[in-house]
Write a structure and sequence with these properties.
With 375 residues, the protein is an alpha+beta fold. It is built from 10 helices and 20 strands. A hairpin with a 2-residue loop joins β9 and β10.
């Protein structure tokens, strides 16, 4: 791969949602792409996510929405349940892909990864596992990247899509700070109850829980635990601990408890956010996705921002004569939208911790509608 010979070449660091969609979007615009992924193949972590309204819109532009809907579970409603177990309202989200297709979809993370990976490879993107960027230098219009295995790439574009702890961001000397919000998010893969045909969100006395279908047969239950530190727990205790935390919730949450049994089907993650206030790029190198902006999971929109980033990045590079101008336009278009999402998610965390669920729910709904506006 050598852009000295005239080809538009890109190296993407990270084969997650942001990296794979960016690689596909760039390939559609004529870029020759390579992904460096430090992890092994099929190393996707977590159980499921929600492809919200803007996620499906962006995936549809890449020709992937129908594949995700076929593999996942289409939905158009969010049902809120109050602390007494009584319905507190149902939100019907806009169907941006037309009346015959749902507004959003739940999908298992490994399944989404497989869909995105297959499309990137079909577009000619080469994915190399077990390597990452070790050093980055600007060489006139090019970026010289030394990989962790000693190989060197000179490319017209470097994209850091390697997550909230991005090593690419550090190599580019882009200042960032992460904030832990005193919450842990639990997720467990369970059989889908027949009544779960949309997202259900339950307000509790000490936290918030919910259920998201990811296929006809499966769903994931989530819970935010307040007032906790960053300490680890033994994996063997995960299932019993999650059942205990869900125990005080009224209503249909009780039907979910027996479905949580295997400790290996439960994950626990800290709620950490960050937003890159300064530059997102240096020369012809840029960071996207969680490397630039990581919201709290309450808005279920981290994947939406990641997919949008890849799509908008390719668009802006196609509209401008130079990579530098395209990157500046990309950051200008994305900064406000991503900041709003991150800041709103942090506000929702605080409202949950204050048990002001009745204020959090309308904020979630209004932010979903804001995200449904054109990118």
């Amino acid at each position: 791969m050598d852009s000295d010979r005239g080809a538009r070449t890109a190296l993407i660091v990270g084969a997650g949602v942001a990296g794979l969609t960016a690689a596909t979007a760039l390939a559609r615009e004529g870029w020759r792409g390579e992904i460096a992924e430090v992890g092994p193949p099929d190393a996707t972590s977590g159980w499921g996510l929600c492809l919200t309204v803007p996620s499906l819109r962006a995936l549809d532009e890449l020709g992937l929405a129908d594949a995700c809907l076929a593999e996942g579970y289409g939905m158009s409603t969010i049902t809120h349940v109050d602390v007494r177990g009584e319905p507190a309202g149902t939100v019907r989200l806009p169907r941006l892909l037309g009346a015959r297709r749902p507004a959003m979809a739940g999908i298992a993370r490994p399944v989404l990864h497989r869909v995105l990976y297959a499309e990137a490879e079909r577009r000619g993107v080469v994915v190399r596992h077990g390597v990452t960027a070790a050093a980055v230098d600007q060489e006139r219009e090019l970026v010289r990247v030394r990989l962790s295995d000693g190989a060197v790439r000179r490319v017209a574009l470097l994209v850091g899509a390697d997550g909230i702890r991005s090593s690419t961001r550090r190599l580019l000397r882009l200042a960032s700070s992460r904030a832990f919000h005193g919450q842990m998010v639990w997720r467990a893969l369970v059989p889908r109850p027949r009544w779960a045909t949309g997202i259900h969100q339950f307000a509790g006395a000490t936290g918030t829980a919910g259920l998201v279908p990811v296929s006809d047969r499966q769903a994931y239950v989530f819970l935010t635990e307040n007032g906790v530190g960053l300490g680890a727990l033994p994996d063997a205790e995960f299932a019993s601990r999650l059942r205990n935390l869900l125990g005080p919730f009224p209503g249909r949450v009780a039907e979910i408890l027996p479905l949580i049994s295997a400790p290996e089907a439960v994950v626990r993650r800290p709620v950490v956010t960050h937003f890159l206030e300064g530059a997102w790029n240096r020369g012809a190198a840029v960071v996207i996705g969680d490397a630039a902006h990581a919201p709290a999971p309450q808005m279920a929109s981290g994947a939406a921002l990641a997919v949008e980033d890849g799509l908008v990045l390719a668009r802006e590079l196609g509209r401008h004569d130079s990579v530098g101008a395209g990157l500046r336009a990309f950051v200008h278009r994305r900064r406000r939208r991503c900041r709003t999402l991150v800041e709103t998610s942090v506000t929702i965390v605080a409202l949950e911790q204050a048990r002001r669920h009745h204020e959090a729910y309308p904020l979630v709904d209004s932010c979903h509608r804001l995200m449904a506006e054109p990118v």
